[in-house]
Amino acid sequence: MSEKNKVRWAILGAGRIANAFAKDFYLMQNAELIAVASNDKEKAASFAKEYNIPEAISHEELFNSDSIDAVYIATTHNFHFEQAMRCLQNGKAVLCEKPITVNDSQFKKLLSVSEEKNVFLMEAMWTYFLPAIQKAKEWLAQGRIGKLKVIQADFAFNMEKNMQGRMYNPNLAGGALLDLGVYPISLAYYFAGKSPEQITASGVMTHTGVDESVGMIFQYGDVTADLFTSMVTRMGNTLKLFGEEGYIEIPDFWKAGAARIFDKEFNHVETYEDHRTSHGFIFEMQHANDKILSGRIESDIIPHSRSHSIHETMTAIRRQIGLKYPFESK
């Protein structure tokens, strides 16, 4: 850690998600962004110039640097395991985009090294930290809609049909489930507070061997989650929590800026809006930064056990729909 008691950050990757992280970084306290790493030197240099980042470096230079305390991994998820492992092995705290690994077996290995090296590891589940999501959780805890009975969420976009791109290519761990489905699955966990006791899933596969759409029913005792994800059509992308005395609606829940509560007759009761001017990554970023400074190795909002459970759930879904990637062991 730097002598100024600041976390010195680097970004691994220079794509769309990395831009969102960099744009919110100016709001960070007790942190400095000192490097961006990409194996495309021109892309890294352009990114560094745009966000006034001192260094544009290669992946290897990042892994071996003594001046970097923490790394935000913003590459595609087929690279997450190897890159997170290299960071942890070199004593660098990791905030890694979701899904943090392709399967639960990979996550267990990262967890083992995090504990062995006493180094912070966190999945970047930014939606958990958004004020509107936390307000909905507060309403639920206050009994504003009575006992929770049904969680309903869809997350679907019509993605570019590039068979060699990250969504359709099995060698890049493509498909709707890992890229999009992780959102409704993670939010169902957030509001149910545990892993599902029963999982029923069905999927439609592409000719490249990845999933284009997945329907999921989770049972948590007497609470049911009805979830759907797809990369071939856009849907409402709304999350609803139905209780015995009303329901909560969160439009565009993945980037939620508002939450609405209704009574059991579906009359509108209250709206919460966060009125933020930032992208919204700052909430998880500051949380991770604070945990690193305090010497923790995990978050209390998205702890290792929760990421592990979510990945176990997605692995179970993959078994049911027959989704396996060529690089996974047989």
Automatic annotation (TrEMBL):
InterPro entries: Gfo/Idh/MocA-like_OxRdtase_N, Gfo/Idh/MocA_domain, GFO_IDH_MocA-like_dom, NAD(P)-bd_dom_sf
Keywords attached to this entry: Oxidoreductase
Keyword Oxidoreductase: yes
SUPFAM superfamilies per the UniProt record, alphabetical: Glyceraldehyde-3-phosphate dehydrogenase-like, C-terminal domain, NAD(P)-binding Rossmann-fold domains
GO molecular function: nucleotide binding; oxidoreductase activity
Record keyword Oxidoreductase present: yes
All residue ranges annotated as the Gfo/Idh/MocA-like oxidoreductase N-terminal domain in the record: 7-123
Family: Belongs to the Gfo/Idh/MocA family.
Source domain of life: Bacteria
GFO/IDH/MocA-like oxidoreductase domain location: 133-249
Organism annotation: Hanamia caeni
This protein's name: Gfo/Idh/MocA family oxidoreductase
